[in-house]
Design goal:
This protein has 23 helices and 16 strands. The protein is of the alpha/beta class. Helix 11 packs across helix 13. It starts with a helix and ends with a helix.
Length: 612
Amino acid sequence: MPRQAWEEKIVADLKGADYEKKLVWKTEEGFDVRPCYTAEDLAGLEYLQSLPGAAPFVRGVRRDNNDWQIRQDIPSSNLQESNRAALDAVVKGAAAVGLRANAVTTHKELSELVQGLNFDKTAIHITSAYSYPLTVEFLIYELNHRNFPGERMKGSVNFDPLSYLLLHGDFYISWENDLEEASYLLKIVREKLPHFRTLTINGHYFQDAGSTLVQELAFSLASASEYLAGLTDRGFTVDEVAPHMMFSLATGPNYFMEIAKLRAVRLLWNRLAGAYGATTEEAGRIFVHAANARWNKTIFDSYVNMLRSTTETMAAALGNADSITTVPFDMPCREPGDFSSRVARNQQLVLKEEAYLNKIADPGAGSYYIENLTHSIATHAWALFLEIEERGGMLACIRSGYLQDRIEESRNRKAMEVAQGKLVLLGTNKFPNLTETVSGPLPSRHETTAKETAFRKLLPFRVGAEFEQVRMATENHVLSGHARPSVFLFTMGNLAMLRARAGFAANFFGCAGYEIIDNPGFSSIDEGVEAALGSGARILVFCSSDEEYADFVPAAASRIKTAAPGLAVIVAGYPKEQVDAFKAAGVDDFIHVRSNLLETLKKYQSVTLHAS
């Protein structure tokens, strides 16, 4: 059936409702997503005739399977502990490990870090180091010591000076020094480790600071272009540099968009490499690593992080990532232990061994929806990349603050959507676990420092952190010997409406960790007022239908305020015709779906905790 026929059917089913408002998704990435797509929407897409493993590699670099590497990143910098964890990960299913080499200053220490790891079976990724050139030299020495051929060694070092600049606000030494170090690393690995990668484009930092997916791709591409420009100026060709580069991207909660993003990045890289004069097929393909985004992970109800990371890992696999790191579910709370690391590993093993996602090359191919998302993301990311180039490139945009401004706009938009409940974090701003208690200091939402830096930092954040700070303040208040603040639900009238609004109010204030005193429904105002005043609650919420509120709210609110003037009296809903009358009777506030949940909780917490 042609697209026009589908559109006519949709319009008919809407019965006069606004098509654009009801069904067209206005994405934060800057393009619209329609409710349906057909074969007609695939016309003109440039890459549709390509096969898996063939340029421009939108369909991945593997021709007949989708067998990605399961990678486990070890968080510890202790050599013995890291080695133990890495060996355990490999025995239990990991094909690659990420190791921190901050403490490595000698070959003996590097040898201790990788002791027992079979380089034929396990790719080694050095995620941080005291010195990357020194670490690579130690690694080559270790290979010689083992009589292991360097051409069989696979892995990477996480050398990314632009990310260092963004995270620390200044160069380690200087941009010229960074390029010299990159040149030195390239010369070493081209001679000794031909399949080892020395330049990593850490695009995940952009998303974890709040960027859109289009920004993540565009800024990653601009970083790659900055490196290519600097290295080609030093005599390298793109054919020599490209095989030793990799992209590390985040996969967040936007499932289909993330699948499309990982397909789009290969198209964009292939285009960029061509612009720099690539002549080999190898230069046109890029190694793509994917790791779960961290900005949407939560401390409270942390097991929900397993659900988040599973769908994100699925998106990475279906988007043809070459390797994937699944972040342990307790990452926001503590350094992951054996249990959470095992769960993270097993999430990928299940997707391979039971869901068989590794058997089919490019599972999303041909989907009208995914193909159009891929095209839209690639088009908008390329346009933003060109804008960055016109502004002087990635380094110039960091110096001017343009990049930080763009990401901050997106971050603030996400934070507002969570505060208003439009973006749901299950267990944090929606359906909290009221029996859960967590105490202690929280990681701050933003990394802050009193030290002034040469350039504005990129500030990683978790979008639910402010809710967690509110909830934690309640928990610490209770631990200090005070009673848990409580909310009394004054339910009366229509059973369906009172239960619906009681549930809404319980979830609303439950996000702050308050005790909810629910009631089955009072038969009279006297009964309800007596119960409310005897409850000891600092907040009261009327729960009923808008029509019935007029029958009892003014009288009940007036009596309650007279007897307990410090009690906050709230109405669940917003009966706009009665708002002024209710306020005159003593109602302090109204909570509803358009309320700023976070600001409201902060306001009442400042009252209830100080009053306890």
